[in-house]
Design a protein that fits this description.
Aminodeoxychorismate lyase, Aminotrans_IV_CS, 7 helices, 2 domains, folate biosynthesis, 28% strand, D-amino Acid Aminotransferase, Chain A, domain 2, binds 4'-deoxy-4'-aminopyridoxal-5'-phosphate, 15 strands, D-amino Acid Aminotransferase, Chain A, domain 1, 9-stranded mixed β-sheet, 4-amino-4-deoxychorismate lyase activity, alpha+beta, globular
Length: 283
């Protein structure tokens, strides 16, 4: 495969970054993961926009639209019908130990791709059933920024993965749902879909944005963005988690207890089918 680093294409083993890079030493950067199936990206423009917003929040001016041609080149050069594109932009390399934003530093721009599974199908038999645990959200107060400082998320993910499970559902100090360690969260109750509203407590997921837009436009499923308590999570008929790679992931177990009747729900089936059909309409 080939990767892109600071204006050049090369083999991964040829890509060299200084250990003085702020991304390495401080986790001082922003990243994106964009899914692509059969050469078609899902929400590329939305991902690039979120990245530019994140960069602006950390004081890096960068026009991410210029990366469209890099993404296109990598998709063409690298094999596989189903590829994720990873983009990372760090503040750059600076020789002194200094916490502030150094002046006159060029950001480090790195892209690579990897093969993923085929686009998901709305099929209860084939869907990956997710089992999750709950935990207090112990991350920072800027979770809307897709920061490369992922230690908080890594530790939360491990709380479930370490038990052989798939995700950790996080709750804020008021006991309300925020999101998962690497995905957004939803419950279904009596046919209505609920998800926490956007705030600095969660990442504005691109899959979330696309899913809600599709359901509002193409279905009669009511979508409500509001706070969700832990009691509501345990009483839910269905729970879903979304991310670029999960798409709409059905959860069948929380803290060892079945969600609803412990089977994948009918509202999920409808939602994943609509997502599969319309997600490529979104740039
Ligand atoms: N929340 C967190 C904390 C994430 O890391 C991610 C992405 N892995 C998401 C939500 C989902 O975002 P997206 O749909 O853009 O992949």
């Amino acid at each position: 495969s080939i990767v892109y680093l600071n204006g050049e294409y090369m083999k991964p083993e040829e890509a060299k970054i200084s250990p003085m890079d702020r991304g390495f030493l401080y986790g001082d950067g922003i990243y994106e993961v964009i899914p692509n199936h059969h050469g078609k990206s899902v929400g590329l423009g939305l991902h690039l926009k979120r990245m530019e917003n994140g960069l602006k929040e950390i004081g890096i001016e960068y026009n991410t639209e210029q990366l469209r041609e890099v993404v296109a080149h990598l998709l063409e050069a690298n094999e596989g019908d189903d590829l994720n594109v990873y983009i990372q932009i760090s503040r750059g390399t600076y020789e002194k130990r200094f916490h502030g934003f150094p002046e006159k530093v060029e950001p480090t721009v790195f892209l690579y791709t990897w093969e993923i599974s085929e686009a998901h199908v709305a099929d209860k038999e084939k869907a990956h059933k997710l089992k999750v645990v709950t935990a207090d959200d112990l991350r920072w107060q800027r979770c809307h920024i897709k920061s490369t400082s992922l230690l908080g998320n890594v530790l939360h993910f491990q709380q479930s993965y370490g038990e052989g499970l798939n995700e950790t559902l996080l709750f804020n100090e008021e006991g309300n749902l925020t999101e998962g360690s690497s995905s957004n969260a939803y419950i279904v109750k009596d046919g209505v879909l609920y998800t926490p509203p956007l705030s600095d407590e969660l990442l504005p997921g691109i899959t979330r944005h696309i899913l809600l837009a599709i359901l509002r436009e193409h279905s009669d499923i009511e979508v409500v963005e509001r706070a969700i308590s832990k009691a509501e999570v345990f009483a839910a008929d269905e729970i879903w988690m979304t991310s670029a790679s999960k798409e709409v992931g059905p959860v069948v177990e929380v803290d060892g207890k079945p969600v609803g009747n412990g089977e994948i729900g009918d509202v999920w089936l409808k939602a994943q089918a609509l997502y599969s059909k319309y997600c490529y309409d979104f740039d």
